[in-house]
Write a structure and sequence with these properties.
By secondary structure, the protein is mostly helical. Among the domains are: 56 residues, no CATH class; 65 residues. Helices cover 57% and strands 6% of the residues. The protein contains 12 helices and 4 strands. The strands form 2 sheets. A two-stranded parallel ribbon has the order 1-2. Helix 3 runs antiparallel to helix 6 and helix 9 crosses helix 10. The longest helix is centred in the C-terminal third of the chain and has 17 residues. It is globular. The protein starts with 12 loop residues before the first helix and ends with a helix.
């Protein structure tokens, strides 16, 4: 569901902060996790407005940036490593592959290894949520895909005379795209996620007798 379309300065903390405040003013309750790419503005705004919410970085953006820093002759091999890491069943398994990758490429492509480790904690947040939801939490494709159609139209139009006209056009394009959005996997788990049920490596943590008594 598309909740907001706002104009603003790209990657600006102030612009993202205005969007978040508007959503709260319109009645949206605090959410459990935010998925985004490397835009610093949204992370800064979230740190102020929802400091306890989980944050997940987009794996697709990260892996593309890592591959860009690896010599082309080694990119096919590196891609195989990265796909293995992406689909690791547990956080520990994911980090083992990460360390193996780092040892393999530290001398060959130190910049790639540096990019790989940057902001790591935000990359593995996905393991704190049900395994059935990993497909939705790993990447920002849910945002990128509908915006591909928007970019085609705005590129063809080149410019809009009024900000209001541009915003209205974007809203309409996204509403059309919204009709083709797929449902989340395992929607029955969403109430548990929202109330903060603990999940480890995609599996709900067993409730202890002490917790039951409480």
């Amino acid at each position: 569901m598309v909740l907001a379309v706002k104009s603003g300065q790209r990657e600006s903390k102030e612009s993202w902060g205005a969007v978040l405040r508007d959503l709260r003013t319109r009645g949206l309750n605090p959410w459990r996790c935010t998925l985004a790419d490397g835009h610093l503005g949204i992370w800064a705004a979230l740190a102020e407005q929802q400091p306890t919410a989980a944050e997940q970085r987009c794996w697709n953006h990260r892996l593309a940036n890592v591959l860009d820093a690896i010599p082309k002759a080694h990119q096919a091999e590196a891609s195989t490593w990265l796909k293995t890491l992406l689909y690791a069943e547990t956080q520990a398994a994911c980090e083992r592959v990460r360390d193996q990758f780092s040892r393999r490429y530290r001398a060959l492509a130190p910049k790639a290894v540096e990019r790989f480790h940057h902001d790591w904690e935000r990359l593995v947040t996905v393991y704190q949520f049900p395994k059935a939801h990993r497909r939705h939490l790993r990447t920002t494709n849910v945002v990128e895909s509908p915006f591909a159609a928007v970019q085609l139209r705005t590129t063809a139009g080149k410019r809009f005379k009024r900000e209001e006209s541009a915003t209205a056009s974007l809203w309409k394009l996204l509403q059309v795209a919204e009709g083709h959005f797929r449902r989340l996997n395992a929607p029955d788990l969403l109430p548990l996620v929202y109330v903060g049920v603990q999940v480890v490596d995609g599996v709900r943590k067993p409730v202890t007798p002490k917790e039951v008594a409480a």
